[in-house]
Amino acid sequence: PVGATELRAPITPSDLATLGGVSVPVDCSARGLPDPAPSSGLTPAAEQTRTAILGAALDCAYWRLASFAAPDFDGPDDLALTIIEQEANGIPVMADIANNLGLAHGERASLDGGIEYVWPSILDDEPTDEDWELLRLLYNEERIAEWREGRAPFDGLSIAITEDGAWIELSGIPEG
After folding, report:
1. Cβ neighbours of residue 50 under 8 Å, at least 6 residues apart?
2. CA distance 169 to 130
3. Taking burial as the number of CB atoms within 10 A of a residue's CB, which of 39, 119, 151, 172 is the most buried?
4. What is the SS3 assignment for 39?
């Protein structure tokens, strides 16, 4: 029977698969990246959130990633759809998230007197030469020089997680 043979045929997806009207990239920029080592100096709650975000990014699980955003999240209104759109347009947001969380973090004071862990570490309250040097893993020398010398505000991808594990910020990705 022809029908049974067709049902057993391998599925060959296009570059985009459609789910509920949303075109989801079949592959994403983070697929195949290595798992970064645990980050020292984070609270257990912050490390748990970092690990969960990393896992979702490396698994290319857009909606799972978006589920970790805190209620007061400062980022795209529809995080999953924004990242899906950017990935489909060749902007490696998932890889950028994973690569940033693989770097050393910085710390800055939060408005409520607590601590926010930030990636990249140049967003620390007092960035060091080493923090700037780490950016060479993600950005070119010209952009780093512009940021460091104050000729341009930092517009790269940034992530912030509170000491109690709330993912409160993802900025630096284009919307729309």
Report:
1. 39, 42, 101, 117, 161
2. 23
3. 119
4. coil
Residue corresponding to tokens 């910020």: 169
- Amino acid at residue number 137: L
Closest CA to 39 of 51, 30, 29, 23: 51
Structure tokens at 41: 């100096």
Separation CA 108–CA 91 (nearest Å): 28
- Pairwise CA distance, residues 160 & 113, whole Å: 15
Is the Cβ–Cβ distance between 120 and 135 less than 8 Å?
Answer: yes
| pLDDT tens track, the chain, 176 positions | 444 444 444 443 434 444 455 566 567 999 999 888 888 899 999 999 999 999 999 999 999 999 999 999 999 999 999 999 999 999 999 999 999 999 999 999 988 889 999 999 999 988 999 999 999 999 999 999 999 999 999 999 999 999 999 999 999 987 65
In this structure, what DSSP letter does residue 26 have? S
